[in-house]
Each structure stands twice: as structure tokens, then as C-alpha cells.
Amino acid sequence: MDTQAAVLYELEPVVAQNLDRHLKTAREWFPHDYVPWSRGRDFAFLGGEDWQPEDSPLDPVAKTALTVNLLTEDNLPSYHREIATRFSRDGAWGTWVGQWTAEEGRHSIALRDYLVVTRGVDPVALERLRMEHTVAGYDAGERSALSVLAYVSFQELATRVSHRNTGRASGCPLADQLLARIAADENLHMVFYRNLMAAALDIAPDDAMVAIRDEVINFAMPGQGMTDFTKNALTIAKAGIYDLRIHHDDVLVPVLRFWNIFDRNDFGAVGEQAREELIGFLGLLDERARFYEEKRKLATVSG
């Protein structure tokens, strides 16, 4: 049994414990409760009117952020495949994969229903983007199980922050309420993965530290492959929904501190080198975030 397989085997009881905790903590909710169905009306296919830009109550930033968030959630089939392949479909691991997938599935259902019913975005363009993005799928590459565990610990928190800030920036109380509910799910998912990675650090400190370093340095949101992602990410960053400062301060650093990365004394030479490289990268990221903050301030003043 190789190191990765051995760690997964040793983590099985921790998975079971955290699965029990999750099931006791998670609150059942229903996507249809968060959609203002009374505002809906037929499209031309059924004798109504097709979408027009003036139908949308959302500003351009909110439309961009909500579309990116929804398309990211749409790729759930690929995400399921990746974690089921890395973790297992048996035992506690398999039960968690199924539970996580079922909970995540509510997010795209609720977001799409909200956007279509309120005519927040062009539903034809949205469906074409969904088809394109889902056909392309998501590929985690050659990541090991530990690397995937490290990645989802950060990614779930990043998604939670993105959803929460999108809701607040939407200008719509209903969207804010819906995205807060989705963000609560994402937070529980983050806690699950974060706790497992903490246990993995105790079981195999060096291997886990290397995985964490690699995922922090190479981190990218799962929606990166979608059309116009770079342009849309810039719009989202400029609006303060998700930018480098948020990524550093509200995602990376809190999780790393939870794992006691900066003060652990159980690393060997390999783990210690990975930690030093991680700390160096965080310093560079902080500098870049500060640069863009100053740039934004100057633009605001000059504007």
C-alpha cells in the first residue's frame, strides 16, 4: 500500500466521525422556497415574451458574478467524478461523496430557478454557456488524494466567500438570502475537508505539507476554464466580491492557521522546505494584493 492509500485508509474513522457531525449540523432546505415564483411569466415559446436586457433587475456586476457562480456549480458531475475517483465510493468515504454531491446539487437548481424566474440574465445565453462549460467538464489533473483534500479545503471556503459577497453585492434581498443559504452549505463542506486535512497532517506531515504548498501556490477556482473567465474574474475583483486580498486574508490564512502550519514542529526536511516555500509565496501574494489595493485607490481618486 503506497503512502496516499495508507493515509486514506487511516483517515476512514475520521471521515466517519466528521460525516456524523455534518449530518447532525446540516439543515435541510428546499430550493423552491427561495424563488419568487409569482414574478415568473412565460417566454415566447409558450406565447409570452422572450428575455430583453431591460427585464433584468440586476446591475452588470451582479449578473456577471451570479452567472460565474452558477456555471461553477453546474460542473458538479465532473467534481463528483474527481472526488469519487480520489477518495472512494465505499464505506464512510463513499457515503460522504454521495451526501456532498446531493447537497451541492441544490445550489445550481436554486440559482438557475431564481435567475430564470426573475429574468436576471438571458436564459438562452445562460443555457448555451452551461452546455459549453459542462461538456468541457473539470479535470483535477494528476492530483493525489492529499492534494485534492488540500484543494477542496481552500476551494470550499473560497466558494462560500464568493457566494456570500455576491449576494450582498446583488442589490436584491432575495438573491442575498439565497446565496447566504448556499454559503452556509459551502462552509460546512469546508469544515469537513479542513478537519480531514488536519488529521492527514498528523498522519503524514511531510506529504500533507507538500500537498498544501502545491495547492496554495497553484490555486485556481474550478470555473477557470469557462468562457471569459479572466475578464469576469477581473470584474468580480474590482467590485470587491473576490480579489487577491480576500483570497489571502479570508481564505488561505485562516485555513493554514487552523492547521497550525506556521508553528508545527513535526515536519522533516521535505515538509520544512515546503513550509518555507509556502510562507514565501504568501508574502508575495500579500504584496500583490497591496499593489492592487493601491491601484484601486488611485483609480477611485482620479475618477
TrEMBL record:
Cofactor notes: Binds 2 iron ions per subunit.
Keyword Lyase appears in the UniProt entry: no
Gene Ontology molecular function: any one: metal ion binding
One cellular component (GO) term of this entry: cytosol
Stored CDD domains: Acyl_ACP_Desat (cd01050)
Cofactor field: Fe cation; Fe(2+)
Oligomer status and interactors: Homodimer.
Name used for this protein in its record: Acyl-ACP desaturase
Organism the protein comes from: Mycolicibacterium llatzerense
